[in-house]
Each structure stands twice: as structure tokens, then as C-alpha cells.
Amino acid sequence: MAQTAATADLAAWRAEMTRPPGALGMAARAVQVKVNQIIPEKVHAAITAAMQGMTRAILTGSDFATGAPLVQATLDERLERVRAAIGAWKKAAAAEGGIAGAGGFVLAAADFPLLMSFKIKLLFEIAAAFGHEGAELSERLYILHIFELAFSDAAHRAKVFEAMDGWDARAHPTDLSGFDWRAFQQQYRDHIDLAKLAQLLPVVGAPVGAFVNWRLVEKLGHTAVMAYRMRLEAQPALA
């Protein structure tokens, strides 16, 4: 998409997605890399396998169908539907996070897959609002990339954005075998680790859990809106 075709906020978002990591970001990433090196490889492998299995089930499940894509609609009509979806899932995630935060380690651990399912369901709804068919594998791969885009460090985010730019003009894989599940799970886990650990603290766990879940869904929703606007402007016939 030519830079002159982008609206100011979309252009600013594109620049943000491709901005190199700053000094603080690089320092934080270096610390996280050290932590990951301490964690035994079998633990990394177990987390990767669990997240891969969970995400595969989510992405291939028919229960994520969101109805027919909204093909003939203005951008305002699409955004109105998306805002309603984001608002509903933020409330659901906050309520669930508050309950999990009040319940200690066991419920906090259960919060991880449930919150992920909330996020993926939101992305399917946003895809439909922007006229895309969530049953198609290429769309499900795009949904995975949006997830990565929202919850990755600057270096990985730039690589993901490059793969997403001009999405509808690209050829796409016919299966998920080439997807880098290790990078997917590690980036996501590293991004939310500190926030979710605070959910385990006594007394403050419930409000922290509610707030963290609210903000994580809000961030994902914004990222998805911008990512689909980018595609919409590249294919004005869908508007």
C-alpha cells in the first residue's frame, strides 16, 4: 500500500510496528533472554507443545465461526460492530481475570487458556466485521500474526508486520506445519509474564487480574483494527 494512501493514524501505526527497539526495550529483552536460558529446555518444549496444541484446536475449531462476513458496509459501520465486540470481550476477560486473581495459583493457571480463547474469538469477530471469512486457513494465519503483532518485542514485531503487509497479494501456506510455534509462545509468554505474575499476589490479585485482562484485550483489539484497516485500504472494493 502506498504511503500516500494511508490515513494519518494508520501511517503512524505502520511506523510504530516497524520502529527498531529502543535502549530500554533492548535491555528488557536481554534480561528475558537470560531468564529463558536458565529455564530447562524440557520446560520450553512442554510449554510450546501445550500452546501449539491449544492454539491449533482454537484455530481449527468450528465453534469459532462468527457468521457471514460483512461485505457491503462503510468503514464506520465496520468499526461500530468491532467496538461492540471489543467492549463485550473486555468485560468478559476482566470478570474472568478478577475471579482467577482471587482464586490463587490454580485459577490463575486456568486463566491462561481461557483468556487466549477470548482473544482468538474476538479476532474472528473482527475479521468478519472487516469482510473476511474466518474459516479460510489464510485468514486464520493472519489472525495468528495479529496475535503476534500485539504481543511481541520490537524486533520480532517488525518481522511479523513485514509478513502481513500486502497480505492479500501474497501466496499463503496450505497448512500450519511451517508456523514457528516456539517463537509464538515465547514472545507471548515473555510479553505478559510480569503482568500475570502480579495476579498471584494476595489481596491485589483480583483487581490486578481484572485490569490486566482488560488491557490485554484492549491492546489486541486495537492491533486487529489497524491490521484489518491496512488490508481494507489495499482493497477499497471491500469498503
Describe the protein in words.
- The chain has 239 residues and is an all-alpha fold.
- The protein is built from nine helices and no strands.
- Helix 5 (104-129) runs parallel beside helix 9 (205-234).
- It is globular.
- The two termini are 15 Å apart.
- The model has no long low-confidence stretch (mean pLDDT 78).
Secondary structure class reads: mainly alpha
The assembly state of the depicted protein chains is single chain
Based on DSSP secondary structure assignment, what is the total number of beta strands? 0
Largest sheet: none
Output the keywords:
single chain; 239 residues; mainly alpha; 9 helices; 0% strand
Task: Write a brief structural summary.
The protein has helices at 8-18, 23-38, 41-60, 75-102, 104-129, 137-150, 154-164, 181-197, 205-234.
Topology, element by element:
Elements lengths: L7 H11 L4 H16 L2 H20 L14 H28 L1 H26 L7 H14 L3 H11 L16 H17 L7 H30 L5
Helix pairs in contact: 3-5, 3-8, 4-5, 4-9, 5-6, 5-9, 6-7, 6-9
